[in-house]
What we know:
Blueprint: H1 3-15, E1 19-23, H2 26-29, H3 42-52, E2 62-66, H4 95-106, H5 116-121, H6 128-149, H7 157-163, H8 171-184, H9 192-198, H10 202-209
Parallel strand pairs: 1-2
Amino acid sequence: MSERNLHDAFEAARSHAPCVLFLDELDAIGFARRKRSSSVGQTLVDQLLQELDAIGSDNRSLLVLAATNAPWDVDDALLRPGRLDRRIFVPPPDEPARREILAIYTRGVHAVSLDLGRIAGRTPLFSGADLKALVEQAIDAVIDEALETTTEPPLTTAHLERALNAVRPTTFEWLARAQNYIEFANEDRRYDGIAKFLRSGEAHKYQRQE
């Protein structure tokens, strides 16, 4: 995204105020200047700061939201008061949410007596994408079975349980990395939400299953 494209996005949002402007992958747009090995991309951060500060513009009735999987890579200036200064940690889905996600991904699938509550209980730390991969892995096994037997077998809980041997939560590695920032770079308490989640027991559930 160029500086002009970023400016145009803000201008379009302002012209439709009240409006919510959502910036995904904030670390790609606002990568910390102190971590850059060259000046490439620095002007994009400068432009974003200018847009957030509404220099020469009016940001009234404009709500700017952003998301990132790497908050430690976001330029500190973007997080100062009046900019993107409120941080909310969105944890992996809890057990009831995982059950609902599994229900969505198995909806319309030829299945028999799926115990989604059982699978939800065995998938701590699984993201929505991880659960989708789990269901797809199980469906692939059903297809293989159909080709071998020339029948139309249904998806069962057993297929999902066997798929657990091949699918692991992608969030676990991320949380392990986040733990390092909590221990060594949390002076401003920006990672307190993650720390609270790590104390909640979901990570320990996964480790016990391992």
